[in-house]
Amino acid sequence: MPTLIKQGASFGSAKLINGLEKLPQSAAEESAIVTESAPTAFPIDLPTALRLSGAENWDVQIAAEKVQEARARLDTAKLLWLPSLNGGIGYTKHDGQIQATSGQVTDVSRNSLFVGGGANLSQTPLTGGAGGPARLMVDLSLADAIFTPLAARQVVQAEQARETVEFNDTLRDAADAYYQLVGAQGQLAMAQLNLEDSRKFEKLTVSFVAAGKGSQADTSRARVETSRRKQAIIRAETAAKIAGVELTRILRLGSETDLVVFEDKPAAVEFVSEQESLSSLVAHAHMFRPEMAEHQAELELNRERLRAEYWRPLLPSVHVGASAGGFGGGVNDDLNQLDGRSDFDLLAVWQLKNLGFGARAAQREQRSRFRQSAYANSRIRDAVAADVAKAFHEMRAQRKQLDLSEKNVELSRESHRKNIARIRGLEGLPLEALNALQTLTRSREDYIAAITRYNRAQVRLLHAIGRQIGEETSDPEVISSQPTVIDGAAGIPLLPAPSVELGQ
């Protein structure tokens, strides 16, 4: 089984984008309600999620057992040369006519008994000579004895590669689900902060209306905005619960477990350097994707089987059998002549199957399978390259979205601040700041969503090039799979801290 992520892996030593400030105390307290209301809450971080997914996933365990099965078959193939030991007893009784070698037919009543054992090279017994015991002889094809272990070794390598495929897929799914949970809980914290700002806005509007500087309709609009923010919290709570259930399914923790991430807020991380070119990533994937190793092993498997068919007419089948023990018999039921007996047979037989046409047909059949494997190998190379290209372009696009979202947060915060300043200077009504508040709310939500999409795109790109999160390597040319926290553009805070006072 592939090496699991070590507990000491330095995954989130820096969990936030540089320059991001913590949540305001009031919002942080509201976000803590999620954990306080769930007595079965289980805190989790990315390394823990990866360890649990790699060790407990059903698909990984099934793949590991298939590797053990392939290794057992390889051991069986290696042991074709060793004889099996047999022991037993054989009794023969004949009454009636029988033809002698000279052609004379006589009426005979006889019986015989053989007690002993022998050695054979397989499990297909052949009868012995006339009147003798079974020789326990078998047919051992030298072509099979030579090439079957070679083919079985390729089966082991293919199954090991399939196990790595399942392992990598499981880590990808776990990391993807983890970042979905981080994003969902981040959206919940953001919704709680937006509700706090909306309540302040509603309070300010009510005070202005009471002072005769607005209409009751303004108060209604402010209350509707507060109600919408409460609805957003319900949606965010539901999304967080669903994301947690999906992660617990992958980790096999039970759907009743309530997972809570350690991160204070989402942070953009970089598993694959954005400076890497697409061509270098494709070359890296062709070298490290386990699917490549799997199909290469299948190609070599069919190559060995093709070699076996070419050599089969040239190599003999060896018949080897031996037996020893007590043998006796007599007329009617008489067994008084029991005495020692031993037999040994050795034959080498060459076979030209179906006058050679059958051998040629078998060669053509196996040659076609070999070519199919070669074509499949080329097809998987193209598929791997396409996977990398799609993940690469998605990652680049999500990074652009992230940069724009950061700028939008900065601009919306500035717009909101200026609108509040105008209201404080009695240059406008609170209702005029509603659009700015709504824009700030959407910008915050878009920013967290952009971080989540970027992190998931990074996970998919890392998987596409055949690497595991936290994988340690001494190769300086290997792309680092340790996460790097990305600097925020101009240190834009994720959440305003402290939030702008709308009342008083």
User: What would you report as the Rg, rounded to the nearest angstrom?
Assistant: 38 Å
Anisotropy-based shape: elongated
CATH class wording of the largest domain:
Mainly Alpha
Low-confidence segments, given as residue ranges, are 1-39, 123-138, 472-480, 487-504
Structural class: alpha+beta
Distance between the termini: 64 Å
Summarize the structure.
This protein is α+β, with helices and mostly antiparallel strands.
Could you explain how this protein is built, in words?
The chain has 504 residues and is of the alpha+beta class. It has two domains: 25-74 and 149-298 and 372-491, Outer membrane efflux proteins (OEP) (Up-down Bundle), CATH 1.20.1600.10; 84-120 and 318-349, Single Sheet (Outer membrane efflux proteins (OEP)), CATH 2.20.200. Helix content is 56%, strand content 15%. It is built from ten helices and nine strands. The protein has helices spanning 25-31, 33-36, 46-56, 58-78, 142-210, 216-251, 278-288, 290-311, 357-424, 434-464, and strands at 41-44, 84-99, 105-120, 138-141, 258-261, 269-270, 317-331, 339-349, 484-485. Helix 4 runs antiparallel to helix 5 and helix 5 (142-210) runs antiparallel to helix 10. The chain starts with 24 loop residues before the first helix and ends in a 19-residue tail after the last strand. Mean pLDDT is 77; it is low at 1-39, 123-138, 472-480 and 487-504.
